[in-house]
Design brief:
2 domains; 6-stranded mixed sheet
Length: 150
């Protein structure tokens, strides 16, 4: 199961890297667009184009900061560490789904099984925290039973 955790951790790292790259490229593209705006006889067109480029840069800078925050969170996750109780970095197998508690990266398929990479602050993770194998809890009117914690 540790190899699976390593694989999920790597998928999360790739997700963060993809977001970082996309945000960085978008910032560069918007900056290039702003630099290419030339003063025209219309006057306002120049200012509008530069303002729109600046808004795009700010939006993508926020996305880049979020990706960097996710990378920081992942740096604190040690997939080789085994855990008895659910905590950040745990892989939790339940009767209702499989969860890797690290960052909110969505759904991954590994060896034809679906795993959800979720943030420790997500509602389902909050329910899982501190529980161990064979513990049960209700979430969204469904009963979850923990089959494995790693």
């Amino acid at each position: 199961m540790n190899q699976l955790k390593q694989q999920l951790h790597s998928l999360c790292l790739a997700y963060v890297e993809q977001r970082t790259t996309a945000s960085t490229q978008a910032i560069q593209l918007a900056q290039a667009s702003a630099n290419e705006e030339t003063k025209s006889s219309a006057g306002d067109k120049y200012e509008t184009g530069r303002a729109m480029a600046q808004l795009e840069i700010e939006k993508n800078s926020a996305q880049l900061a979020e990706a960097q925050k996710l990378a920081q969170m992942l740096s604190h996750i040690h997939p080789e560490k085994k855990t008895e109780t659910v905590q950040a970095g745990s892989l939790v197998i339940t009767n209702q789904g499989n969860y890797f508690i690290a960052i909110a990266a969505g759904q991954f398929t590994v060896e034809n099984k679906i795993y959800y990479a979720i943030s420790p602050s997500s509602p389902i993770a909050q329910k899982l925290m501190g529980l161990k194998k064979d513990d049960a809890f209700l979430f969204n009117k469904k009963e979850f039973v923990i089959e494995k914690v790693s």
